[in-house]
Amino acid sequence: MRHVAIIGCGPAGRYLADQLLRLLPDASIDILERLPVPFALIRYGVAPDHQGTKAIARVLDRVLSRERVSFFGNVEACRDIQLEELMSFYDAVVLATGATRDRKLGIPGEDIPGVVGSSAFTGWYNSHPESRPPAVQGVRSAVVIGNGNVAIDVVRVLAKGPAEVAGSDLSPEVTAWLAAQPIDSIHIVGRRGAADAKFTEHELAELGTLERARPIVVDPQALAGDNAIVQTLRRFAAAESRTTPVTINFHFNLTPAACVAGKQLRAVQFHSRNGVITELQAQLAVTCIGYEAIACGEASPANGVFPNDNGKVKERLYVVGWARRGPSGTIPTNRSEAQQVAQKMAQEIGDSNRPGGSGLRRLLEQRGVRWVDYAAWRRIDAAELVRAGEGRCREKFSSVAAMLEAAHAAGNETPGRGDSI
Ligand code: NAP
Q1: Chain segment 34-73, per-residue pLDDT in tens
Q2: Would you say the CB of residue 395 lies under 6 angstroms from ligand 1?
Q3: Which of 191, 204, 250, 333 to mutate to test the pocket of ligand 1 (most atoms within 8 A of CB)?
Q4: Of 14, 109, 215, 324, which sits most exposed with the smallest number of CB within 10 A?
């Protein structure tokens, strides 16, 4: 029997597990996740008002229930177990750890209160246990930097009113924080022209359908090109004017230069192409400029990704997803990538006498690590569905302790022993 450990239970890790099950009928696959709950990007990255996209979690969930797959939630590689220890237990180890750190702009004032990276911001509005609300109040104007789909998600969540997020899993605390901000202007700023924006047409067009907010192209004469994005922006510019409490203002060809503080963020300054400085007043700025992978033990990223040869980092160590290729593509991109990497692994990894999951379990028990197995995750899942109030599809636990309590409360397992918490 061949034993594979996948570190990270987001879409990339999950699709790879699926492919390995097909290609290696004798393999057992253990998936480690540092939080007690699976799905990573789906749960903590995808916007709460896009429940259609989040529904893919149901598909991802199925693989976790397969006989040859074991889920080890609440187990952090390089904290609870070292990479070299995993390499000694398993015939192959896969880094599916994503790209979790916000890229920095590298401009003055980037660290002042009110300037937030999109990983932190999307984590917060998705109730990630390590997230905090933005350290500002009284937000009238927000600047969103970047012209990708994450920027659109952030704009949309800021722009929507409570009625428009009904049925989502936005937490009561996040809903209350958003409702308390007197937001009337959102600026979405790209450093290149509209034709170079990385938005997808569908996501951009959705901003023209919001109840409380309308899109405005600040300089429609400057729109150059004729692709689907430019056409959508032209439609925004030509649309009949309506009065809304919030405006979403599109700016292009502005490069971030500085964040300017009073007691907190006061404005963001940009260079235009002709060198003129444009200053946008803002109490909140969210940078949506991409993410980078972080190190896992002796495996270190370079330029935000783990250097690899078609998914192979070194003998018996592989990488998939954003940790391999950077933060690009859609969720199904991971499926085609998983096929290729799984094929490579199936050809390369051999059988051995390594212990696989039994070695991991023994070590975690010795260290008193409380892991969450699939059954325990399903208890957390059920508890989150039950506690969702009216108008919400789920209310996530926002602390690891509460997740562990829910996992433990409904079962009779002894923490730190057996295959459950
Ligand atoms: P992205 O699509 O790569 O967009 C990043 C944006 O940041 C680009 O406009 C980029 O400009 C800009 N940028 C980078 N460095 C900058 C700097 N120093 N100053 C100013 N601007 C800078 O990344 P993303 O929006 O984070 O999305 C990541 C992936 O997730 C994408 O594949 C996206 O499509 C996907 N996603 C999909 C959905 C959906 O389908 N609903 C939702 C969210 C995310 P340049 O182009 O000039 O580099």
Answers
A1: 999 999 999 999 999 999 999 988 888 999 999 999 999 9
A2: no
A3: 191
A4: 109
